[in-house]
Design goal:
CATH superfamily: CinA-like
Number of helices: 6
CATH architecture: Alpha-Beta Complex
Pfam family, one: CinA
Order of helices and strands: HEHEHHHEEEH
InterPro entries: CinA-like_C, CinA_C
Shape: globular
Radius of gyration: 15 Å
Protein name: Damage-inducible protein CinA
CATH topology: Maf protein
Strand content: 15-25%
Helix content: 40-55%
Structural class: alpha/beta
Length: 167
C-alpha cells in the first residue's frame, strides 16, 4: 500500500521522536478507519513505537473496546469533545505498552453532516500517561480524502506535541 509522501515523512519524524523519548503509541480511530496507525506502521522500525490500534467506527465498538461511557455517547453523540477524550483515555488504559494515545472521531463525508455537526467536523484528543489530555476541534474543507488526510496530519502533530510532556 502506498502512503502519501507527506504523510509518510510526518510518520517517520514522529517515529524517530518517540523512539528518542521512549514513547509508545496507541490509536483509537473512527473517521480515519485505521489510517493513522497505517501511516505509522508503514515506517521501518515502527514496532518499537506502535503498540496497537483500535478502529472503533460504531458506538458499540467505542463503548465495548475502549470503554467510552454509554452516557457520553447518548448525551453528546460520537462526534464530540467528551467522546474524543474518552476514546484517547480508554485506548491508553487498554493498550498494554502505550504511553500515548490519540483518538479521532468525525464526519468525513460526503454525507452524515448536519447544521450542528457539519461534514468535515473532527474532534481529536491525545492522552499521555501522567499528562493532561489534549483536545482539538477542527472543521476541515474538502472531500472525504481531504478531511481524513488533514485529520491524520493533526493527529501526528498532537502526538508530537505530547511527547516528553509531563503532568
Amino acid at each position: 500500500m502506498n502512503i502519501e509522501p507527506d504523510i509518510l515523512a510526518r510518520a517517520e519524524n514522529l517515529i524517530a521522536l518517540c523512539k528518542s523519548k521512549g514513547e509508545m503509541i496507541a490509536t483509537a480511530e473512527s473517521c480515519t478507519g485505521g489510517l493513522i496507525a497505517g501511516g505509522l506502521t508503514a515506517v521501518d522500525g515502527s514496532s518499537s513505537v506502535v503498540d496497537c490500534g483500535f478502529v472503533t467506527y460504531s458506538n458499540e465498538a467505542k463503548h465495548g473496546l475502549i470503554g467510552v461511557p454509554q452516557e457520553l455517547l447518548d448525551t453528546y453523540g460520537a462526534v464530540s469533545e467528551p467522546v474524543a477524550r474518552a476514546m484517547a483515555e480508554g485506548a491508553l488504559i487498554r493498550a498494554p505498552l502505550a504511553t500515548l494515545a490519540v483518538a479521532v472521531t468525525g464526519i468525513a463525508g460526503p454525507g452524515g453532516g448536519s447544521d450542528e455537526k457539519p461534514v468535515g467536523l473532527v474532534h481529536l484528543a491525545c492522552a499521555g500517561k501522567g499528562r493532561p489530555t489534549l483536545h482539538r476541534r477542527r472543521v476541515y474543507d474538502g472531500d472525504r480524502h481531504a478531511v481524513r488526510k488533514a485529520t491524520i496530519i493533526d493527529a501526528y502533530e498532537m502526538l508530537s506535541e505530547m511527547v516528553g510532556k509531563t503532568g
